[in-house]
Amino acid sequence: MQGTPVNIIVGSHVWVEDSEVAWIDGEVEKINGQEVVIQATIGKTVTAKLSKIYPKDVEAPAGGVDDMTKLSYLHEPGVLQNLKIRYELNEIYTYTGNILIAINPFQRLPHIYDAHMMQQYKGAPFGELSPHVFAVADVAYRAMINEGKSNSILVSGESGAGKTETTKMLMRYLAYLGGRAVTEGRTVEQQVLESNPVLEAFGNAKTVRNNNSSRFGKFVEIQFDKQGRISGAAIRTYLLERSRVCQISDPERNYHCFYLLCAAPQEEIEKYKLGHPKTFHYLNQSKCFELVGISDAHDYLATRRAMDIVGISEKEQEAIFRVVAAILHIGNIDFTKGKEVDSSVPKDDKAKFHLKTAAELLMCDLKALEDALCKRVMVTPEEVIKRSLDPQSAVTSRDGLAKTVYSRLFDWLVNKINNSIGQDPNSRSLIGVLDIYGFESFKTNSFEQFCINFTNEKLQQHFNQHVFKMEQEEYTKEAIDWSYIEFVDNQDVLDLIEKKPGGIVALLDEACMFPKSTHETFANKLYQTFKTHKRFIKPKLSRTDFAVAHYAGEVLYQSDLFLDKNKDYVIPEHQDLLGASKCPFVVGLFPPLPEESSKSSKFSSIGSRFKLQLQQLMETLNSTEPHYIRCVKPNNLLKPAIFENVNIMQQLRCGGVLEAIRISCAGYPTRKPFFEFINRFGLLSPAALEGNYDEKVACKKILDSIGLKGYQIGKTKVFLRAGQMAELDARRSEVLSTAAKKIQRRIRTHQAQKRFIVLRKATISLQSICRGRISCKVFDNLRREAAAVKIQKNGRRYYSRNIYKKLHVAALAVQTGLRAMAARKKFRFRKQTKAATIVQAQWRCHRATSYYKKLKNGVILSQTRWRGRLARRELRKLKMASRETGALKEAKDMLEKKVEELTYRVQLEKRLRGDLEEAKTQEITKLQSSMEEMRKKSMKQMRCLSRNAKLQRKPLKKLLLLLKKHKF
Ligand SMILES: Nc1ncnc2c1ncn2[C@@H]1O[C@H](COP(=O)(O)OP(=O)(O)OP(=O)(O)O)[C@@H](O)[C@H]1O
């Protein structure tokens, strides 16, 4: 795409094309006719042709634009600068209309691929969120669901640009959208996703351009049912790089599976008699055995796990790795000259050991294997001749066997995965994801590059057809006013390659079928046939090379190995050998050829098979709605944050990105049938629809009412310029969102009102319930309080009463005690007083009595003595007076009177004592009840009293005795 040097005036900011750094920016100093002098920002003055100068958009947003069709100046430096700005901000995705450009970040950016992101992109309108691979997958999915049409996503880019990673993301997102419940432990989408590590282990290898380069093309068809759920899947692979099995260059590696197996657990290493990769010829041609940051041992286990998930049984896995090990051993069978001329035999014991191990692992006959490698059977009409091969040919035969076995193994894996995932015959539609090698142009380009570039030509044509050709056809059909948009149609290159008869592929097949053909004869044939073809170039200095002017540039091919690489037949000896293996798995890899084909032609060409495959692929793609993702590799160092301008510009040119931008801007990339247009955008101008039944006029009115310029109205469709649809959609979204807001507002008001009424009612009843409950609680509390007070009162009363009772009883007891004590004291005092009185009376009585007695006795004595004397005197007188008896008798009567008196007194005393005792008994009886305790005392007192009584009795006794003595 060449820029149009508009607005180039002195002082304007411009870009200048520079072959080394791609672009230099600066300010125009001078314009001299067709030459411009620029003061570049890199500090030098540059003089360039006016046609190499492009205006710079000084008002472009600082963060770049997410769709390049939005750029004010659409030219290469503008596009590059935009990508660069975004890449520096880690915005690796940018749209170019409907094409997504993905720049490999060479660093993990998990935040842009997590579940949250998937959720965000699910159902989001295209262009609403920032560009993303999920957005493309979402568009494809929605289009499939809404229109019921199959879609395809074509991922392209050069090796290491990130196609496989992008494809994986697409598959992950589609699995997320169409995932379904787990059945039998694993889902279809799980199997589809897990097929990636299995295919990567066997089809990927480290190359100089990518540490995990897919050495095959892949088209994954994901089938969906009516509900949009994944119901099946099919994987188609294209052109596995067979030569890598036997030949690798430093610092590349062979297919990952070989290294994985060499890092397997020890028992497997021993079982397959393996060792370090450096001990195997197929691996040690390069010094690179390990990958930085990758553990082969870990990957081996991961691959086995993935194999389990995709449905490869344990037994099959064992057989697969046995065959892989056998290939490694086959590679170590070296040959030396045999005894016969031009014959060969295993070189040494080491070669024999590997031959034997390979035979064991493939479960075929050792001798048959040796013969298959060292001999050829020639069938002539006359006889069957066995011809020996020289060591060089034996090595070629050996490598041929290894390549055939490996490619059959790879095909088996793909078939197995397809069978295991299963196809859905009732699938409504599918989404195909194509991850195919990008355009390749190296120093030496062989048959592989030729096929790869052929594929890219095909895809470019599909792209052209979709983007340009069909577009312009449509313009004509719809009779809109348009000017022809120039684009490079590559049909002539495709004719050069695939035309039948006469194309390069056909000529190659022809050459392969003639035994005497060599690459020189083939090249000559090409030179002759395409002498005048403008896309075919014969290099001046070479006799076998040829160049093709591809859409992305000229590529020089070396035809040396074209013939060999194009031959796709299995040497019959190899077929017979492995067909007779005792291992059913190996036999399965080499099914017997159909009788006819083996007879008619043993030859089949890789080129024409590949051509056929591509044809089928194109048919599939043509029946789908395509979406394009162009992966870009920002640098060859495979490091993040390095943006190599020239390299990227080249990729953008090759990928047709710039061309697509140009066409998008020059043409009418969006169109809609009138009906659909009115249906969709009628709401932008309701007035335009009123009373108007002509759709075309209505469409025009709608567009005019919005004020869009530059659109076209065809016979049945409205044609819009790039970005106009977005503008219309934005307006529509605005109208819809205003309407939606209005409706939402109303509905929300209504709902809120309803909610409010219900809420109020509920609140009131809740409040009344609450209040009721609170009152109940308060009442309950009051009742409880009253009860508590009552209980407390009663308790206290009871307690006080008890205390009082005790106190009362105690007081009574004390009072009683005290009173009793006082009474006792009084009683005692009275008793003592009484007793004292008695004692005193007794004593006095006694003393008086004693005194009286003494006196009386004395008196009596003295009287007696006296009377005696008187008596004696009288007696003497009486005697003398002799018997004066009368006097004596009188004395005697007097004495008797006295005794009577004394007896009366004794009786009186006795009666007094009885009265006293009676009073005493009465007193005791009275006091006995209250003074139980004092009984003893009283007893004592009684005793005392009785003693007193005794004492009282004593004088009485004495008195009685006295009376007795005196015989009263
Ligand atoms: N989106 C991404 N995020 C992070 N790293 C990425 C991304 N895309 C690619 N890469 C890195 O780039 C490497 C190469 O990517 P990938 O294998 O997808 O390239 P490719 O285009 O498929 O190459 P080939 O054609 O050789 O198979 C990956 O191994 C990965 O490290």
UniProtKB/TrEMBL annotation:
CDD domains: MYSc_Myo11. PROSITE patterns: IQ (PS50096), MYOSIN_MOTOR (PS51456), SH3_LIKE (PS51844). Keywords: Actin-binding, ATP-binding, Calmodulin-binding, Coiled coil, Motor protein, Myosin, Nucleotide-binding, Repeat. Residues 9-58 form the Myosin N-terminal SH3-like domain. InterPro entries: IQ_motif_EF-hand-BS, Kinesin_motor_dom_sf, Myosin_head_motor_dom-like, MYSc_Myo11, P-loop_NTPase, SH3_Myosin. Coiled coil: none annotated. This is Myosin-9. GO terms for cellular component: myosin complex. Residues 63-733 form the Myosin motor domain. It holds the Pfam family Myosin_head. GO terms for biological process: actin filament-based movement. GO terms for molecular function: actin binding; ATP binding; calmodulin binding; cytoskeletal motor activity. Belongs to the TRAFAC class myosin-kinesin ATPase superfamily. Myosin family. Plant myosin class XI subfamily. Residues 614-636 are annotated as: Actin-binding. ATP binds at residues 157-164.
